Amino acid sequence: MEPAASGASVTLRDVAAASGVSLSTASRALDERGPVSRSAAAQHVRKIAEELGYRRNSFASSLRRGETRTLGVLVPRLSDTVMALMFEELERAASDRGYFAMVATSGDDPEDERRAAETLLDRNVDGLILATARLDDDLPRLLRKRGVTHALVLRTDGVSPSAIGDDEVGGYLAVRHLLDLGHRHIAVVTGPSFTSSGVGRLAGARRAFDEAGINPRQEWLIAAGYGIENGFTAGEALLGGGSGKRPTAVFAANDNIALGIIAAAHRFGITVGKELALVGYNDTPLSARLSTPLSSVRVPLAQIAGTAIDLIVNPGKEPHIRKSMPTLIPRESSGAPRRA
């Protein structure tokens, strides 16, 4: 069969006629929103459509149904490995459900966040997924008030539908691991105090300390940003005390912070994994590839992404928060035995 001439517009009616089927049968065979039909007729229609150069106008058909099959995703920044990985998983999960995901970045400023959200809403997205929520953030409340379909991911305000890791369990696992290795002088560098993830991971660390009967030194509990430079600054404060006592172990509330602490330890001639035990969080791909592989708490990003998309496309009657369970991955940075 000859393909359509250059510039010609092949319609669904053309495909149906060339396939010898009804218009409705051709439409069902080419509908990408549900499971792909494997029937001989459907495969024949798809083969003819490809030969003719037919391109389904999913945007127009979605508009006729009052939807765009597009979701907006708002992240603080894509230079953050976790946020980039999270968006990739959200994009994949959206595609599996017949949706397209587009991303916008906002930094950590609430005004920038609101502007970015409005930009996505101006594109007529069917819902918003926010990885930017602050505990003091007004945006989720405004979205609820306006009736905008949305879900929070990785962070929660405790009210809007949310798909998150269980940060308190993760913080507990990290510090419990260090305690089980015999450490008693443990520092914790948490994420920002305006994030539920930072607050939750610190709460889990405190629970582990309480179980062990340990009252951590206040100057060893540092709230920082989630960047490498934040970890380096915290590492300098913890490890550069001269004759003062320094911690023998550190729980860093994400892997970027841990990388900064590694850099600070190197500056002071401290060997991570021998003189200093270190546990990170999120188990980003680089963690296992460092010269001293980093112990880290693994978060099931794919599961969280799928849950977030489902909260958008199949919203329940009541807002709810779904937590996915993290897992500790011990490696050499905490003094765990080298794996074969």
Automatic annotation (TrEMBL):
<dbReference type="InterPro" id="IPR010982">
    <property type="entry name" value="Lambda_DNA-bd_dom_sf"/>
</dbReference>
<protein>
    <submittedName>
        <fullName>LacI family DNA-binding transcriptional regulator</fullName>
    </submittedName>
</protein>
<keyword id="KW-0804">Transcription</keyword>
<dbReference type="InterPro" id="IPR028082">
    <property type="entry name" value="Peripla_BP_I"/>
</dbReference>
<dbReference type="InterPro" id="IPR046335">
    <property type="entry name" value="LacI/GalR-like_sensor"/>
</dbReference>
<dbReference type="Pfam" id="PF13377">
    <property type="entry name" value="Peripla_BP_3"/>
</dbReference>
<dbReference type="InterPro" id="IPR000843">
    <property type="entry name" value="HTH_LacI"/>
</dbReference>
<dbReference type="Pfam" id="PF00356">
    <property type="entry name" value="LacI"/>
</dbReference>
<feature type="domain" description="HTH lacI-type">
    <location>
        <begin position="10"/>
        <end position="65"/>
    </location>
</feature>
<keyword id="KW-0238">DNA-binding</keyword>
<dbReference type="GO" id="GO:0003677">
    <property type="term" value="F:DNA binding"/>
</dbReference>
<keyword id="KW-0805">Transcription regulation</keyword>
